[in-house]
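We treat protein structure as text, and this decision shapes the records that our systems exchange. Because each token names a local backbone shape, the row as a whole describes the fold. For reference, a complete record is included directly beneath this paragraph.
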Amino acid sequence: MKSRTQHLREASHSWPQPDKQGDTAACLFCDTIHDLVDIQEGEAAYCKRCGNIIYQNRRASLVRATCFSISALIFMLVVQFLPFLTLNAAGLQRELTLINTTTSLMRTDAPILGASVLVFTILAPFFLICGMLYSTTPLLAGRCAPGAEYVVKWVYRAEPWNMVEVFLLGVLVSILKLAQVADVHINAGFWAYAGAMLCTAAAIAGIDRRELWDRLELANES
């Protein structure tokens, strides 16, 4: 007879929904209460009142969330070492990295701005990426990492504080203005940061919250 762990390993590519009789889910848009139903991979449960998605069973969700998290972590590590932008003005050339930019702001007259850039564009993305990896990687083997429930809770709480998209938009606006007085070259660090942004968003969106909680619950029971 197969053990619980073996069943979880076999179900690592699909949603192993626990048997919860009488459980309900509320629509985030209209608050209509629905009874939970099992859905197949690639399907979604829609609100009967407003038609919005309540939860969905994404294809290969756990594997996708883990792989995108690994890719995002690699991109974020690359960003710390490769130049972000190169400025040429009046015969002077300056290469900027993300870390150097934040430390320069903190040493000058903008310490609050520098600390904000550090927290919202470096630390918050790192926390999201590492939190997802810490939670999803053991689930591929049917196990739950110690304290994974608290990590997942804080990952979703910290998600709105991830300002990578805002920072990149600000950089693009700054490049357009700086181009009028200097030669600006976008380097590999910028593209790596953009890759980290896309992979982080894909990792968070790759697995439904309800599915992730169900996987953690079943892994704790094994």
